[in-house]
Amino acid sequence: MVDEALVKEMKGKFDAGAAASDVMDSLKVFELFKQIAVENEDLKEELEDMDITIQMLITDEDKKFWYKIEGNVGFL
């Protein structure tokens, strides 16, 4: 089940815009996406066979945040 509190929090973040976001918000987006995919069989099937690499660089005036994810999408 998708965490409704997380949905509301992320809607607020999206409405506030990128300037108001925190680096950790990107991880919350992935968590929300994972929860949605667990409940959507079409999306889950699409992701299960996918071998992916994600690289993301987030910067502002004073900070730089980079992470790389390699592997398969798993559902717990």
Question: What letter string, H or E per element, gives the SSE order?
Answer: HHHEE
Spatial separation of the terminal alpha carbons: 12 Å
Strand content: 15-25%
Helix content class: 40-55%
Largest sheet: 2 strands, antiparallel
Q: Over the alpha carbons, how many angstroms does the gyration radius reach?
A: 14 Å
Structural class: alpha+beta
Question: Which overall shape is indicated by the principal axes computed on the Cα atoms?
Answer: flat
Number of domains: 1
Q: Can you list the strand order of the major beta sheet?
A: 1-2
The multimeric state of the shown protein is single chain
Can you count the beta strands? Answer: 2
Flag low-confidence runs.
Answer: none
Mean pLDDT: 78
Q: Supply the number of helical segments.
A: 3
Detailed description of the structure:
There is one protein chain. The protein has 76 residues and is α+β, with helices and mostly antiparallel strands. The protein has one domain (4-72). The protein has 3 helices and 2 strands; from the N terminus they run αααββ. It has a two-stranded antiparallel sheet. Helix 1 packs across helix 2 (25-39). This is SCP2 domain-containing protein. Keywords: Coiled coil. It comes from marine sediment metagenome.
